[in-house]
């Protein structure tokens, strides 16, 4: 059973930065690909980006150039570095591995 726990969310002013973490435990054999999603109030869950087991990344157009995904395999942790945050980045952020989701962490950007 895979267990994912996100942390690092909070309130930040527009233009600021946050780094989210996602700690993975259990059942991580096979694909090491991890994804980040977000869901704003009243909107569908939106894909943010992905990192493969060997560190290849890809991002949604809305965050490319501002967000960076990285991983520390020794710590079983994936990170989402978010820079130049905008009000429209306000959402609950989730990490995903295979069919498993974390509980989410709230990011609020004040304008």
Describe this structure in words.
- It is a single chain.
- With 111 residues, the protein is mainly β.
- The chain is built from no helices and 11 strands.
- It has strands at 3-7, 10-13, 18-25, 34-39, 46-51, 57-59, 67-72, 77-82, 91-97, 100-101, 105-110.
- The strands form 2 sheets. Strands 2, 4, 5, 6, 9, 10 and 11 form a 7-stranded mixed sheet that branches. The chain has a 4-stranded antiparallel sheet with strand order 1-3-8-7, with no helix packed on it.
- Strand 7 and strand 8 form a beta hairpin.
- The radius of gyration is 13 Å and the shape is globular.
- The mean pLDDT is 94.
The structural class is: mainly beta
H-E order: EEEEEEEEEEE
| Fraction of residues in helix | under 10%
Low-pLDDT segments: none
**Largest beta-sheet characterization:** 7 strands, mixed
Distance between the termini: 40 Å
Number of helices: 0
Overall pLDDT confidence: 94
- The radius of gyration over CA amounts to 13 Å
Overall shape: it is: globular
- Beta-strand percent range: over 45%
Q: What's the total count of β strands? A: 11
Helices and strands, with pairings:
Elements: E1 3-7, E2 10-13, E3 18-25, E4 34-39, E5 46-51, E6 57-59, E7 67-72, E8 77-82, E9 91-97, E10 100-101, E11 105-110
Keywords, separated by commas or semicolons:
111 residues; mainly beta; seven-stranded mixed beta sheet; four-stranded antiparallel beta sheet
Summarize the structure.
The chain has strands at residues 3-7, 10-13, 18-25, 34-39, 46-51, 57-59, 67-72, 77-82, 91-97, 100-101, 105-110.
């Amino acid at each position: 059973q895979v267990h994912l726990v996100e942390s690092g969310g909070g309130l930040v002013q527009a233009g600021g930065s946050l780094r989210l973490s996602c700690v993975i435990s259990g059942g991580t054999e096979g694909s090491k690909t991890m994804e980040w999603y977000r869901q704003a109030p009243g909107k569908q869950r939106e894909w943010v980006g992905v990192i493969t087991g060997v560190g290849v990344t890809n991002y949604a157009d809305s965050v490319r150039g501002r967000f960076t995904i990285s991983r520390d395999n020794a710590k079983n942790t994936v990170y989402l570095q978010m820079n130049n945050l905008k009000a429209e980045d306000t959402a609950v952020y989730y990490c995903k591995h295979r069919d498993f989701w974390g509980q989410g962490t709230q990011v609020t950007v004040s304008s």
